[in-house]
Amino acid sequence: MIMFNIIVLLFYHVIPSSCYSINPLAPPNNTNRLMTQHITLNCDFSPSQDGHICTARNLNITSRNITIIRVSGEYFNGVGNGNVMNLIVTQQNLRYIPEGISNFFKNLEILTISRSNLMALRFTDFLGLQKLRKIFIVGNHISSIDDQTFKSIPNLEVLDLSSNKIKSIPFEAFSLARHLKILTLSNNLIRIFDILPFPVSSELRELRLNGNQLVRINVASIQHTKMLEFMDLSENLCIDLRYPDDFGDIVGMYTHIVKYCNDDTGVDGSGG
Ligand SMILES: *[C@@H]1O[C@H](CO)[C@@H](O)[C@H](O)[C@H]1NC(C)=O
Ligand SMILES: *[C@@H]1O[C@H](CO)[C@@H](O)[C@H](O)[C@H]1NC(C)=O
Ligand SMILES: *[C@@H]1O[C@H](CO)[C@@H](O)[C@H](O)[C@H]1NC(C)=O
């Protein structure tokens, strides 16, 4: 009897304390927990020919460390998050794109974030969204873009970042954007367009740089864009072409160029 008691006591004292550190149900690391805020993305789902649409509502995201852990909303028959091809955020408060979108909308092809106070694009923003083809992030306050931001989405075809506060395009931003067909950077604060060239087999057709503060374009940036048909350079400062001769060669391939310069001595009009 005494012997039994001792054994029980041993169990009480030894087991709980020695097991504690390896208990799989131990509470999560509080430091991590404090750094991340988990939210539910509220969606109004609607069907469309281009695949189902989620229009986000009641978003108020003011810090960087926010992760979506749930999506709420009314689904249609047999349709779930995996069927959403189009995510629309408009007139919400969304300073940063939350993490976790790709965990829910694996088949997302179109992302729109308009007039929603977005301040930055980060290299993690589009990770995992392998099918993303069109991005419209218009009328926000974006001033910084990570260099690697668009490298994770090789299928990107249309990128519209107009009406933001972008001062410069990251040097490597489009060096892998082989399928990019329409790039719209209108109405920003870009002074110099000098980036690593679009890829050799670039499919770029339209490049809109109007409404910036351009003083210089390094033509080498677009030297491989053999399919370019339209380039809008209107409403800028006087543009100095770094390699005017090269630009002259390329001009012949454009069907239309809109160019404005106070001192309009450069290439103008249409070729091809
Ligand atoms: C919790 O996680 C943070 C960051 O990953 C780490 O620095 C910290 O040491 C961890 N704390 C504990 C008690 O494990
Ligand atoms: C998010 O990170 C910032 C620092 O970047 C911190 O001040 C803030 O408390 C964090 N938010 C939460 C909800 O943990
Ligand atoms: C949005 O979040 C911020 C910070 O958490 C808070 O101060 C503000 O009141 C919220 N706005 C709305 C409309 O809920």
Automatic annotation (TrEMBL):
It comes from the Eukaryota. The keyword Signal applies. SUPFAM superfamilies: L domain-like. Keywords: Leucine-rich repeat, Repeat, Signal. It holds the Pfam family LRR_8. The keyword Repeat applies. Residues 1-21 form the signal peptide. This is Uncharacterized protein.
